[in-house]
Amino acid sequence: MRRLKKLLKENILIMDGAMGTMVQSYNLKESDFQGKRFSDHSIDLIGNNDILSLTRPDIIKEVHTLYIKAGANIIETNTFSSNSISQSDYKMENFVYEMNLESAKIAKSVVNDFGNDFSFVAGAVGPTNRTASLSPDISKPSFRNISFDDLKNAYYEQAAGLIDGGIDIFLVETVFDTLNCKAALYAINELLKERNTDIPIMVSGTITDASGRTLSGQTVEAFWYSIRHVDLIAVGLNCALGAKEIRPWLSELSTIADTFISVYPNAGLPNEYGGYDESPKELAKFIEEFALDGLVNIVGGCCGTTPEHIRAICDVIKGIKPRKIPAISPLTRLSGLEAVVLRPENNFVNIGERTNITGSLKFKRYIKEKKYEQALSIAREQVNNGAQIIDINMDEGLLDSETEMIEFLRSIASEPDISKVPIMIDSSKWSVIESGLKNLQGKGIVNSISLKEGEDLFVEQATSILKYGAAVIVMAFDEKGQAETYKRKVQICTRAFNILTKHVGFAPEDIIFDPNIFAIATGIDKHNEFARDFIRATETLKKNFPLVHISGGVSNLSFSFRGNDIVRESMHSVFLYHAIKAGMDMGIVNAGQLAVYDDIEHNLKECIENVIFNPQKKS
Length: 619
Known about the structure:
Blueprint: H1 2-10, E1 13-14, H2 19-24, H3 30-34, H4 52-55, H5 57-70, E2 74-76, H6 84-87, H7 96-114, E3 120-125, H8 148-165, E4 169-175, H9 178-195, E5 201-205, H10 220-227, E6 234-242, H11 243-256, E7 260-266, H12 280-292, E8 298-299, H13 307-317, E9 332-335, E10 339-342, E11 349-352, H14 361-368, H15 372-384, E12 389-393, H16 401-413, H17 416-419, E13 423-426, H18 430-437, E14 445-449, H19 455-468, E15 471-475, E16 477-478, E17 481-482, H20 486-504, E18 511-514, H21 530-544, E19 549-550, H22 565-582, E20 586-589, H23 602-613
Parallel strand pairs: 1-8, 2-3, 3-4, 4-5, 5-6, 6-7, 7-8, 11-12, 11-20, 12-13, 13-14, 14-15, 15-18, 18-19
Antiparallel strand pairs: 9-10, 16-17
């Protein structure tokens, strides 16, 4: 890791070119793919290039050697499809570990033969031939032919073979679905922790067309925010586009990513026969421009490229300084299909509450009656009314909350006008939260965890949330109960902050505190301080921890006035006016039903402010 980082700061490193293009040049036959070992295999193996590591290792070694001689510093193992999911098409699932092991050994032997301290073996981890974020059946939007756990298990097996074969880097590449990628990263990090080892991880996404989005619909910025929770040595783009077409998306990624940047485009766009016509000189010219403009740290070639392309790239980038990693300000960066950055000037983030079983009787009825189209219309309405995040809660005694959460999240994924915003997964059941995280390709928020059951469970759940790449809401709740007073709110949130940042590894900007908004004007004296204590606690927490966010369920405040919508909406508006000034910057609200503070009738406003601040109580 240290050696690679040092080299990347001093040089632009070169990746190899296409393995498939080179394999095709050998004009291999079925007998080459089967070899003696698989001569009686039940189905044809031709086209399964990864099996050649077992049946024609001489060819794979020769291809690696040609790329090293051309100047490549990083060569990829012949394992793009060496996972049980892709290999099931060839009925070769039982040989996946061996394929990865032997492919890594072949590549490592080539690097060792050259004795070059500037050369590394990257274990190629492809996307599989299935997608966890999209349905293969247009008539069943919530259907999936693969799950997060299926992907994680397949990637874990592949990663184990690659590690045992001696790779230097993991390369999760050609990412067209970020949920697939998150499963791969989860599996790799799980394995690295078990092995107590540290191997650098690179990720390379694929922009499928001029829209600048992945196949599963994410923008480049959203893609990066979805995976940046992992300590990646590099992130980049490859495949689908040629260097000319990839330029704007590479430039965007280079600006926002606080790690090294890689790019290995195709040799132009495919021609009418599926071939690639861009010459080594033409491709190298584009790569040289990337380097001169300070966009890249690692360059190479994808489909259609050969050792001649790599040699031409090596020639043009000699002496060009690598891109410097930019300093990125610590802001909360969330994503659905599109990115949402919570900046100080945003003032307040509306979290739509109506896709919550407890927040909307209509939504509850639609879910119970399996009327998912109508339920989706409520989510769409929340987004159209200005909700920047939508809160989804399925906790109800007569519902299978876990199943309903999965069904609804998968349905949302097929609705770009809804799934463009980040999702808040809201549940009191950990199994529901985790099921939700496994069906979220973007970076969402978990609502919520607390110290209610002690530090051990709190740390365990927070660690899992971090591995899935979500931000977290922490309730002001500990072993003694919910925090009602100013003092308890500050004490519990401070304790939680220290645990999350010092022991779990959460970035402060991914922590959101909910210091509890309780009902006021209930007729019980001690309740009269609830709103005032929330506002005071908010002010203190934002002063002590300026990067965190403060949120809350605003409708809780006015429960005593259920049925009187005018008073309730005015109470919410007045409370938010003062809480936002104190530092509250997020809230679960009905975005379409907030009165304008300045439009509230004077006497009503005055009465509400007296209730909120309880002036009869001496400070």
